[in-house]
Amino acid sequence: MAGLWSSLRSRPAPTRGFAALSQGARNVGAVMQRANKARTAVAVLTALVLAGCSGDDETARPTPSPSPPPSFAPGAEGAGDAYFPKYGNGGYDVAGYDLKLDYAPATGQLGGTATITATATQDLSAFHLDLARLVAGKVTVDGRAATSRADGNELVVTPAAGIVKGRSFTVVVEYSGKPQPLSNQALGVGGWLRTKDGAFALGQPESASTWFPVNDHPSDKATFTLAMTVPAGVEVLSNGVPGARATSAGRTTWRWAESKPLASYLAFVVIGQYRVQSTTHGGRPMVIALPESLPATSNAARSLARTGAVTDFLANLFGPYPFDANGGVVLDDDRVGYALETQSRPVYGNTFFAERPNTTVVVHELAHQWYGDSVALARWQDIWLNEGFATYAEWLWLEHEGERTAQQSFDRAYAGFDWSVPTGDPGPDRLFGDAVYQRGAMTVHALRRTIGDPAFFALLKSWPAEHRDGNATTEDFIAAAERAAGKDLGDLFEAWLFGTQKPPQP
């Protein structure tokens, strides 16, 4: 995410038997009249040939060329995404993050260790980790002390010895500080936000670097485990399957584990006063948490109570639910006017439930578990693959609930739409605009009308199955759609994804 350079092994020079054989032949010729000597010579000659002697047409066995020595260089300080070139890092591939952290709500202080397992994708002399506004202390690579320095929101690590391409390695970072959020003028605030009774960390397109060292780009998915220690009586919610809790000296350690690879922005933590409901659904843990500030019968509670039913509906469309746990968390915080598909357990701002129950937002975020989480982005330009399908899942749910058909939802969106922003390349400042969500969903519906329901609904299942736990691009999806349709769809996708004029009704 171990290759070894082998030094040249010397080989003994091949036996050059021709000179000895020629001299032997002259001796045999000189005593040819003596039969017993001749027979002896013939026997000797035969033995030499069998032993590997050869005539003067023998060519030497080639000596294998030595492997080139490693060419160590620092990994890139960004993953090279055209929209966000400095997000993530190059030179390695992370397999897993294991966090052991302690948080004090009264002071806002966070500290602990992050253990990161990775594989070098080049000969590494140094590498970057994303770590924003926190201070790293001791850093080791494979148990040996490494040097580190902060460079803006990057932690640059130089191991004691170079890491050869293909070799796995383990980084342990001890760090601490008071986490701060990250802000983007166009995309808003994300990352760690402190609350009166705890904190939470989530956001898109970046957030993880505000609370742990990370390769913060969705192209590098990894497993994730968290052990978070807080004062007793404070709850901690995160991704995946809940583990055993332990309380000692007035502090409780909460454990969570996501065994399927996740994109870093899909990792989250919520700390505070919550009512935690732990049940099962489909044989998986179902954990739903609502803040104590909301009534137990709130619109949010009533909406999230349908998580199991929504999951079953989507599984009929998209195939088996892709993770080992399910659920949801509601935040009662005015700074969160969005919901996010945090893997295995979406997080919802209470603003979605302010006036009435809202199941469509639950549908949207759970649809992302297939489209966006299990099959993740390889680059941010292709975010329509997440949002277009999740929005279309809302349309299918509304049809299922008898409110309106998917065609009627399409007609509503199509009428009077601004087509100037291409869905397949909206630009970094319009990642969360209508061109991605509404036009993305219209693109999905246009595909359905073009290839027919049997091929379309088969594609809805085959796509997440084919790329499960991986990453994919728009080009990958177009190829899959053309296989499902059995025909070229270039004109369709050119018009609906990249054109800036109104496409004709499908």
TrEMBL record:
Its cofactor is Zn(2+). Residues 356-496 form the Peptidase M1 membrane alanine aminopeptidase domain. It catalyses: Release of an N-terminal amino acid, Xaa-|-Yaa- from a peptide, amide or arylamide. Xaa is preferably Ala, but may be most amino acids including Pro (slow action). When a terminal hydrophobic residue is followed by a prolyl residue, the two may be released as an intact Xaa-Pro dipeptide. Its EC number is 3.4.11.2. Residues 63-72 have a biased composition (Pro residues). It comes from the Bacteria. Keywords: Hydrolase, Metal-binding, Metalloprotease, Protease, Zinc. GO terms for biological process: proteolysis. This is Aminopeptidase N. Residues 97-266 form the Aminopeptidase N-like N-terminal domain.
